[in-house]
Amino acid sequence: MIDKTLRVVLAEDSVVLRDGMTELLGARGCEVVAAVGTAPALLAAVAEHRPDVAVIDIRMPPTHTDEGIRAAVEIRATTPGTGILVFSQHVETAWASRLLADGAAGVGYLLKERVARTSEFVDALHRVAGGGAALDPEVVTQLMRGGRRRPVDALTPREREVLELMAQGRSNRSIAAALVVSERAVEKHVAAVFGKFGLVATEADNRRVKAVLTYLAESGT
């Protein structure tokens, strides 16, 4: 029987989800010592509170790409006594591999849509805090395939649509009109594509061209 009060730092950029999870975990006997919405705030909260476990979403402000899991890797290195539970809709194989480079002890990676019961989630939290592992089978499968996956394979359907329109020479405004979304949403998708392709900003920034060339080369177009 689990009787230890678990001290948790929660990192989730959605205010509604963050508040809901805080209430849920409190009702299950956990103490949420900090609930934050950005990666820098997460790092500060972990340094201040030294929680038993940090629950971390992958995509957080400002780019909504991989800030959360980058922070998780940093926490793993600097605060090894804190368990890490990545809780997301996405599998980021490159960063997940880095997170698990020294073994899976004290690490969890669960997909939001595949957690059927609250009790399963809380059990996973305790297991990770105690030095165990909690990895969704889908995460394990993708990690095993990771060495053979192309960057294009990591794109979501929407990111692929945006990239296809970029390849047609369209601007973000034109892409937004074609997909009936906001220009800000397109900017987020473009940033995600750059991140997954490993394209960093330079003084002569031509990442759009490089992204399109990568797409054309890997898709055989």
From TrEMBL:
All residue ranges annotated as the Response regulatory domain in the record: 7-127
Residues with the 4-aspartylphosphate modification: 57
Keyword set, alphabetical order: DNA-binding, Phosphoprotein, Transcription, Transcription regulation
Pfam families named in the record: GerE (PF00196), Response_reg (PF00072)
Domain HTH luxR-type: 148-208
InterPro entries for the chain: CheY-like_superfamily (IPR011006), NreC/VraR/RcsB-like_REC (IPR058245), Sig_transdc_resp-reg_receiver (IPR001789), Tscrpt_reg_LuxR_C (IPR000792), WalR-like (IPR039420), WH-like_DNA-bd_sf (IPR036388)
PROSITE patterns tied to this protein: HTH_LUXR_2 (PS50043), RESPONSE_REGULATORY (PS50110)
Record-linked SUPFAM superfamilies: CheY-like
CDD domains: LuxR_C_like, REC_NarL-like
Protein name: Response regulator
Origin species: Streptomyces roseoviridis
